[in-house]
Amino acid sequence: MKPFIDADEIWGYINQAAADKGRIREIIAKSLNKNRLTLEETAVLINANDPELVEEIKQGAKNLKEKVYGQRIVLFAPLYVGNLCINNCAYCGYKASNKQMKRITLSNEDLIAQVKALEDTGQKRLILVYGEHPKYDARFIADTVRTVYGVKSGPGEIRRVNINAAPLDIDGFRIVKDANIGTYQVFQETYDEETYAKVHLGGIKRDYNWRLTSLDRAQEAGIDDVGIGALFGLYDWRFEVMGLVRHTNHFEACYNVGPHTISFPRIQYASELNINKSHLVSDYDFTRLVAILRLAVPYTGLILTARESSAIRDEILQFGVSQIDGGTNIEMGGYSKKKENENQDIDFEQFQINDNRSLNEIMEELIDKKYIPSFCTSCYRSGRTGEHFMEFSVPGFIKRFCQPNAMLTLAEYLEDYAPSGTKEKGEKLLEEKLGEMEENEFKEKLKEKLKMVKEGNRDLYY
Ligand code: SF4
Ligand code: SF4
């Protein structure tokens, strides 16, 4: 496959797009009418440097969220399965050259203990994370996914397992698909080839095109649920946003479906990293770029991670981020450790996280802000594929599916895991949300289902 990122083309758009006020408003209106933006239109938003225009862009992203995405936020947790790695990424603590790093691959027993610990906090959706190493081949990944699905602790179970692992070949993706995975994520890290070569100093990951085309191979293998991402701070954020939009329209053109999710981790503590620090992204530009991405790809799920502080998370949630991780512990084997041991040794971690709140703390904060924390996995399990696209494009989808499912999974959480204070607040929120619904048969059925959850029924969904 020919590489589809053309740096000259991208810079051509960035250098030529005029950030005219009228044009910016037209572009925001186009996005609010549920249309993905072109590269040229995205470049116009990128070039809007006047603070008033930046505010209009952020307001546009907020309006899109109000108009389309409703009040539910899906929660998940990352689980690191192994940190063996043959690559040397300048920005990562797991790089092969870091001889201080203790290398661990969870045994089956350890993996089960981690999953049980996660289930015991109420998690239902995981993303399994693996370094790049011959040991973590497709069969290994598929086996760990099956193990995770098989772990049940009390009322707990994992209902969706997503993967963040090295690119595979087509046969490898087929093997992993057969284990019933959700999304397969491969982040390009940077779309700029020259920077890519500078920060990937050894191992298979040096091959820019092998990584860039990895999710095309996933599509060939029948995995149409793929996640892309860029690590902001390696190169000019404007180019990376354009790269993500180009990657999206490549998928649309070739497979008729965009990426399921876009992630945008950001490097913040670069003092000990061997990278050019001139591209670190300020909070101002970061919130702005997320708003631009929201408008550029209005139907794609946006994932925000615990690398960001709670203050940044709170702002970005208003732009229609659909998923966040909660209660994240990126220490290898960290979930099953006792609380007093949680001041972990940094040598075991890949990067630093800035939101150390427990899942329940995050749940409570979302509830306080009137979001409905959700563990919904219903589309995937009911065979409704392209879920983010449907919630975006099918009229009434959020009302009929996302919101009631969020309420049902929240009700489960309140019954099974929440301390009394959270339970009280959560039940009040459920009452409020019910109160806002029209009186009709659907509402009566939902009330009945919520009652069934209280009576001990689980996994009820639409
Ligand atoms: Fe290995 Fe991934 Fe870290 Fe690179 S980012 S060193 S591939 S674990
Ligand atoms: Fe996601 Fe579908 Fe659940 Fe909505 S109903 S939250 S789109 S899985």
Tell me what you see in this structure.
- With 462 residues, the chain is α/β, with parallel strands linked by helices.
- The protein folds into two domains: 66-392, Alpha-Beta Barrel (TIM Barrel); 397-454.
- It is 47% helix and 10% strand.
- The protein contains 19 helices and eleven strands.
- The protein has helices at 7-16, 21-32, 39-46, 51-69, 108-119, 138-150, 170-177, 193-199, 208-212, 214-220, 237-255, 283-296, 310-317, 359-368, 378-382, 387-393, 397-416, 420-436, 441-454; strands at 72-82, 125-130, 152-153, 156-157, 160-164, 184-185, 226-229, 261-263, 301-304, 323-325, 372-374.
- Strands 1-2-5-6-7-8-9-10 form an eight-stranded parallel barrel, surrounded by five helices. Strands 3-4 form a two-stranded antiparallel ribbon.
- Helix 12 links the parallel strand 8 and strand 9 (301-304).
- Helix 3 (39-46) packs antiparallel against helix 12 (283-296) and helix 16 crosses helix 17 (397-416).
- The two termini are 40 Å apart.
- Mean pLDDT is 92; it is low at 338-347.
